[in-house]
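Predicting holo structure, calcium ion bound.
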Amino acid sequence: MAATKKTTLRKSLTQLGKAVAIPETPDDAKLEAVPNPHPGTDYVVRFTAPEFTCLCPVTGQPDFAHFVIDYVPGKALVESKSFKLYLSSFRNNPAFHEDTTLVIAKKLIEVLKPKYLRIAGYWYPRGGIPIDVFWQTGTLPKNTFLPALEVAPYRGRG
Amino acid sequence: MAATKKTTLRKSLTQLGKAVAIPETPDDAKLEAVPNPHPGTDYVVRFTAPEFTCLCPVTGQPDFAHFVIDYVPGKALVESKSFKLYLSSFRNNPAFHEDTTLVIAKKLIEVLKPKYLRIAGYWYPRGGIPIDVFWQTGTLPKNTFLPALEVAPYRGRG
Amino acid sequence: MAATKKTTLRKSLTQLGKAVAIPETPDDAKLEAVPNPHPGTDYVVRFTAPEFTCLCPVTGQPDFAHFVIDYVPGKALVESKSFKLYLSSFRNNPAFHEDTTLVIAKKLIEVLKPKYLRIAGYWYPRGGIPIDVFWQTGTLPKNTFLPALEVAPYRGRG
Amino acid sequence: MAATKKTTLRKSLTQLGKAVAIPETPDDAKLEAVPNPHPGTDYVVRFTAPEFTCLCPVTGQPDFAHFVIDYVPGKALVESKSFKLYLSSFRNNPAFHEDTTLVIAKKLIEVLKPKYLRIAGYWYPRGGIPIDVFWQTGTLPKNTFLPALEVAPYRGRG
Amino acid sequence: MAATKKTTLRKSLTQLGKAVAIPETPDDAKLEAVPNPHPGTDYVVRFTAPEFTCLCPVTGQPDFAHFVIDYVPGKALVESKSFKLYLSSFRNNPAFHEDTTLVIAKKLIEVLKPKYLRIAGYWYPRGGIPIDVFWQTGTLPKNTFLPALEVAPYRGRG
Amino acid sequence: MAATKKTTLRKSLTQLGKAVAIPETPDDAKLEAVPNPHPGTDYVVRFTAPEFTCLCPVTGQPDFAHFVIDYVPGKALVESKSFKLYLSSFRNNPAFHEDTTLVIAKKLIEVLKPKYLRIAGYWYPRGGIPIDVFWQTGTLPKNTFLPALEVAPYRGRG
Amino acid sequence: MAATKKTTLRKSLTQLGKAVAIPETPDDAKLEAVPNPHPGTDYVVRFTAPEFTCLCPVTGQPDFAHFVIDYVPGKALVESKSFKLYLSSFRNNPAFHEDTTLVIAKKLIEVLKPKYLRIAGYWYPRGGIPIDVFWQTGTLPKNTFLPALEVAPYRGRG
Amino acid sequence: MAATKKTTLRKSLTQLGKAVAIPETPDDAKLEAVPNPHPGTDYVVRFTAPEFTCLCPVTGQPDFAHFVIDYVPGKALVESKSFKLYLSSFRNNPAFHEDTTLVIAKKLIEVLKPKYLRIAGYWYPRGGIPIDVFWQTGTLPKNTFLPALEVAPYRGRG
Amino acid sequence: MAATKKTTLRKSLTQLGKAVAIPETPDDAKLEAVPNPHPGTDYVVRFTAPEFTCLCPVTGQPDFAHFVIDYVPGKALVESKSFKLYLSSFRNNPAFHEDTTLVIAKKLIEVLKPKYLRIAGYWYPRGGIPIDVFWQTGTLPKNTFLPALEVAPYRGRG
Amino acid sequence: MAATKKTTLRKSLTQLGKAVAIPETPDDAKLEAVPNPHPGTDYVVRFTAPEFTCLCPVTGQPDFAHFVIDYVPGKALVESKSFKLYLSSFRNNPAFHEDTTLVIAKKLIEVLKPKYLRIAGYWYPRGGIPIDVFWQTGTLPKNTFLPALEVAPYRGRG
Ligand SMILES: [Ca+2]
Ligand SMILES: [Ca+2]
Ligand SMILES: [Ca+2]
Ligand SMILES: [Ca+2]
Ligand SMILES: [Ca+2]
Ligand SMILES: [Ca+2]
Ligand SMILES: [Ca+2]
Ligand SMILES: [Ca+2]
Ligand SMILES: [Ca+2]
Ligand SMILES: [Ca+2]
Ligand SMILES: [Ca+2]
Ligand SMILES: [Ca+2]
Ligand SMILES: [Ca+2]
Ligand SMILES: [Ca+2]
Ligand SMILES: [Ca+2]
Ligand SMILES: [Ca+2]
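Done. Tokens:
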């Protein structure tokens, strides 16, 4: 990393390298950023987070989802551990599929101010019908390389 | 969900949380909507419904299909349980492949008035030849994220 | 077919080549047999029936399943069209997963008196948990060739 | 089907519901059309026909192919049974890969006058080298939903 | 279901058809049984439960697993909803991978007294290394049909 | 090939290297053998024949199948070209699925007198239900290496 | 083939239907063309050639490749057998990966003068790193149907 | 974990929860054990370790491998973090494929004294030919559930 | 290779055909170029490098990645062996995922001055969340053939 | 490798680390062995060799095959480079599928005197029908771990 010192980077973080409990709500979670080592370059970072769970606001039963997030960083990258903790903060909170997917994306946008961000939320089936939610901010910066997701579609049995 | 209260939402629904019999015909089914929690955001909701059956209008024998529906909500989201009941209302009704696929899409459009909707109907083979039906309303809103379907194509044997 | 004449075979059947309505219940269905053209040979016939539906006895909602049936015929083969009609006779009848799978198998045994039969029922998920039911009659006749099913297991999302 | 009566539809057909022998040549086959139930809507119908065979004009040996055909219907849909019979009419006729693929497409165009049609012919390997043939008529009507084929490519062994 | 009446069956259950909160601990959960409709027949019931989560006893962070359970019922079948609630009772409890997998299996054995039971627990990777845990009770009853799991193995990237 | 001269081998064959028309019936076909170059060794030869077609004895319509044949040669190997011609001889002949699969196997046994032979016939679906037929002669010679078929099972749509 | 007679076509060819030895070098090979039966139609022909080998110019060791070639024919189609012989002419000749892939494409262009041609060369790994080479001539004719290749990417182990 | 206290367990470990450098050689690594919470039960624990690298003893160049290890614990389970460190200790050490695979297995046996252990080492190709190494200790304890590995085999290209 | 002599080519290289130790750091590595045999042709060369490892700058533990690099050569091609050595030079050096991916790409650009280059880095999961990094230089030269990557996405378990 | 010194090992080899031309015939090739570092342990070594080619003895045209070889070493392991050279020695020699597969296996047995060896030869299709050849020596030593091959079966098109 040409311009960022490791020590400097870690000093500004509050959770990395410490034992941190699961935040009780998304509001309690602290999503943190680190400096983008290549701020003048439009590249894509993709996170795949197959471990997500929250509660159904109607029935109180657990819901599960698999997320894929692509973003073009501006000045900041998301700090991985704080992102993991943010996701886990939904664990015991009620959250609708469509809403939660967008809320996660918008939180990342608020913290990172990326040049572009998109999210794909693949939710486990309820009533035999799975729901996917897809959103992106405006336009991908020109000439940015963003491959297709290629996530396997849901199928029934057999 | 920032602006919608859970209690309000559920009061307007007539089927959620109740035992509801399969509607006898699509006309008897009540497809219901709930408010879109992010009405100012162009995002996609995808339903995958691998459990669909109706009757062949020519032979009276059962037909089966796997549907994938993508839409960009306007003011409303489809209420999942009512959608499931709507699909099951075709169960004992005659319905041609091409027609049924479009009828389902147009019904959703009538109820949801989405900014965009597309449907893919993958019908089980008859006479060794499966039929797929694909339709979308006009144009996808600019800069909307809509991944490819990636549904496995039909193959014969071996 | 060395020993069986086509005309004789068809005369004994009551449904082949005729328009036959879906039987209202499994009891109304007529599962028919045709002579085994190689009665002295222990071979396996496998049916794959991905188009099955019945009703949930608790909720009245539709259930779906994908069946694979392997049998070693004795004197009789199942007549395909009558088998298809038999499966469709469950369409508007309540039926538990475990029970239905075994009932179908036992009906085939009653009609065909096969040397061996096994059934695999892959049911679509309810409450996020799909159920499979597997059963076979006693022992496969010695030296019979019966390949593994290789049916794709259920997975969640992502 | 809003505007078309089932009885009317069937009266105009000459082969549906009757035992029809395989036509001896493609010229003898009668490819038939039925009215498009949604003539004002630009949608796609996809046929997958993995059961095709003809003879090699050079060696007289059998050739096999797997076809996928997508079309945007104008006033007419192809009648499925007559299409199946048309395909089977090539059975004992000599036909080059490239030529046959285009001839089938052009015949459908002649009978259906679709707004758009494309064909993909996947031929089984000869001399270790399989040939695929792809063709489409002019331009897909604007804003029509036509998913990628996703047919598995040929591979050798291992 | 030959010998069991639907009403009788449901009367003995305490959770089916009611809104039941997630039990706070596995001890609080009530795993319930229903009569086996075919008690004289050795068949297999397979549950696939891709939605499981608990907490890591060392770090307090969430863990996830995908379970496949096969059993040969004796007098009882597990009641699906109570099983789902039992699994969700681990949600906020510390649990080691190996231990939890066996504890779930042994609980099912205690309640169902099956003729045979096996469990496969596929845990999500920690430190880049996923752990699977496999266990079965003694011997599968002779001549029972139990297909291979065919669950996709873990792989890294690329 | 240690013990067999190429010239000798080809002299005894009547079809290799010549243009041979498709035999009109299986009886007209001449299935030929060549000497086994390793007669003292129990090994397996597997043929995969995805190009097979015959006619349905009931409807006269074309049927298609994909065959996999494994055998342990005794004194003879099947000559590939004559085998291909034999398969093509069914082209315009009526043939039931179960019967045809066994007839092909028994013809090979008659000509080759192998130490072991098994056949798997994967037939294309009719009425939505594909049929597979599996047969083997007695026992595989001890310590013979015969891998599983791993042929993909039939699935519906989606 | 509407306008081309089979006899005329074969007279102009020098290798079809004859035993032809592997040409010693690509220069010795005779790549031949046959008339395009649909010269007024812009369609694509795809060859998949998984059987290619040459020698490494640096080490003299064998190299292997899998080629996929798509072209839009002008007045000519490539004659399959001569193409196969052309590919086999590289067998004992030194050839770099990038160079060979382009040389094959340019030779086809010279002989066929196609409206468009593209080649994909998938080379087997050396030093653990496989190389793919992709090239196309200028622009695909407008409105030509050319599906994606969908060839599986290389992966390591596991 | 019925009989083992978390605090006791962690006290005996020297590396868990601490920053530990990669051991310089396998001899420097400390592979640690924790008590088996179900010592009276014969179950299988599977580790999948796709992140392994060492050096080729002949060329000094890096080698890579993907390991799958199954064992039936006796009194001890391997402690995951120490196992990860043990694997990373090979990083800058020369090691032959066959030897290394067995050395890892034998080290685990020495430390864990398992009732059974097997290892599968899938090494990345060298010279175009990948090597797999498979070994197990004596016999699997009777009635132990050990699924097949189902790891994808190596293939070339295309 | 029309214009480049093999001897000339090898003389300018310093590492090919010699035993070269792993460079201690990326700075010590010598990435070398060879002349592009088709400098007037815009084609793509794809490297797939599934064998990459470096150290985590925060924990010192090993990280692993799978890279796919596509470039359109200008006057130079990368010399394969020097590229392999360059990749291995990261082995014992600390490197962040995002940074390393871009550093490799920028080094290739510096040495090769390609008309276009893109890189996809698929990193193994940390904390259950894998990261992919994608970057390309400006615009792909017009009419260049560059297929999609089709790399399998990460998934959890099951 | 506990008991074998690297220097000793390499001294006895005649081809490793030298430029060696492709042997002109299998008789000219020198298949070499190295000491088994674990001679008292019954383990399996699997080679996958997807790069094999020879000539068809009847037509002189190239044939291709993908081999998988498993063996339990006695005192010796095969030396990889000499094995690669041995395989390449078939390049310009006529060889029948069945014969070649066994000849390779028997040569390895002669040189290595393994406790067990098996070979699977997957040959590319000729006349649309691929041939696989499978052979093993006597019995696998008791309690040896030998996973299934899991090689994808041949399929036609579509
Ligand atoms: Ca469900
Ligand atoms: Ca895809
Ligand atoms: Ca794709
Ligand atoms: Ca796609
Ligand atoms: Ca399998
Ligand atoms: Ca299997
Ligand atoms: Ca695809
Ligand atoms: Ca059918
Ligand atoms: Ca298998
Ligand atoms: Ca694709
Ligand atoms: Ca290699
Ligand atoms: Ca398997
Ligand atoms: Ca991890
Ligand atoms: Ca793909
Ligand atoms: Ca062929
Ligand atoms: Ca398998």
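Residues C 148, 150; E 148, 150 surround calcium ion (ligand 6) (CB under 6 Å).
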